[in-house]
Design brief:
With 322 residues, this protein is an alpha+beta fold. The protein is 17% helix and 35% strand.
Length: 322
């Protein structure tokens, strides 16, 4: 089986990079650690929000697609992204903070943890989860240059929820190929059953939740939908081993892809959800001063010769520290 170490990043879609930047930095207090472009379509921004260092396991990223329509939620989708905070007190802080911005927030208990459901302005489905009892994968380091107090800061990615029409095909890939193990069953307030799996050290940074909804239509993605979820692997050698495992299981994959900040491999599990495997390094400080991450447009070396053409297609986005 593969050797995975938890969630690496989640990538979603926004229709407006400037509004997205304002919400995730000013309201949620996350750090923009990389302002770059989608390497497969350089006409769109790719924004990475994370902890202070841009640590693997803390990155929530967005592709800007100007004409992205609304999302019609449904099956075969990544239907919830969660963000870690340190304690139950942090959950209470965030409920009050979000409501001060006129954002509805529902606090409940899930798996014995305090969680807070809410949506961003584009109806991105989000959940804050308390790490108070976490004994698994370590969280990131709070970003202190924000008005969110450090003890309450967002410090990483938590469980992702997948909505699928059938449990078994996705479960087989998670458990037989990717090394996940069953952890628990849980139930949402509306009575929906969740099947929960963890990998590596486990804990909030290494969980996948499956929601089985056979009657739903397939999701039609748009702004506020999730494009893919990435899982952590140690290095390129581990990616190569994962590729062989996928080939042996007759699952098509992208082969290794050089993203410069990490190495990747992509494949779709049987219910059609896009998974990525991504290495922990070399990281976002490869081409920028760690103190100035995200302030200018960063391009990997293989795109640098096209900088002038790329910048001409992008709407200017001021992300410099004031």
């Amino acid at each position: 089986m593969m050797e995975l170490h938890g969630i690496h990043h989640v990538s979603a879609i926004t229709a407006n990079a400037a509004n997205n930047y304002a919400f995730y930095t000013k309201v949620l207090g996350m750090r923009l650690v990389k302002k770059t472009v989608n390497q497969d379509d350089t006409s769109m921004y790719h924004l990475f929000y994370a902890d202070k260092l841009g640590s693997p396991g803390t990155d929530l990223t967005f592709f800007e697609i100007h004409r992205a329509g609304r999302t019609y939620t449904g099956n075969n989708s990544i239907s919830l992204t969660s963000l870690r905070v340190s304690s139950d007190k942090a959950i209470a802080y965030w409920k009050e903070r979000l409501e001060s911005f006129d954002i509805a927030a529902q606090q409940v208990e899930l798996q014995g943890r305090q969680v807070l459901f809410f949506e961003d302005p584009e109806k991105q489905r989000l959940m804050l989860v308390s790490d108070q009892e976490n004994k698994g994968v370590h969280a990131g380091i709070p970003w202190e240059e924000t008005d969110v107090p450090a003890p309450f800061a967002i410090i990483g990615l938590g469980p992702v929820k997948l909505t699928v029409p059938e449990l078994e095909p996705t479960e087989r890939v998670l458990m037989d190929l990717m090394g996940f193990r069953k952890k628990a069953n849980a139930q949402l307030a509306d009575g929906t059953d969740l099947y929960i799996y963890e990998v590596g050290e486990g804990g909030t940074g290494a969980e996948v939740m499956l929601e089985v909804m056979p009657a739903l239509q397939k999701e039609r993605p748009g702004r506020g939908s999730v494009h893919h979820v990435a899982f952590r692997v140690k290095d390129k050698e581990e990616l190569e081993r994962a590729k062989k495992i996928l080939y042996a299981a007759h699952l098509p994959n992208s082969g290794l892809v050089d993203r410069y900040y990490f190495q990747s491999l992509y494949f779709r599990e049987p219910n059609g959800i896009l998974f990525e495997l991504a290495t922990d390094g070399p990281g976002f400080a490869t081409d920028e001063d760690p103190d100035r991450l995200g302030e200018t447009l960063a391009l990997p070396p293989f795109l640098e010769d096209e900088r002038e053409k790329i910048e001409a297609k992008l709407t200017p986005l001021d992300t410099k520290k004031k």
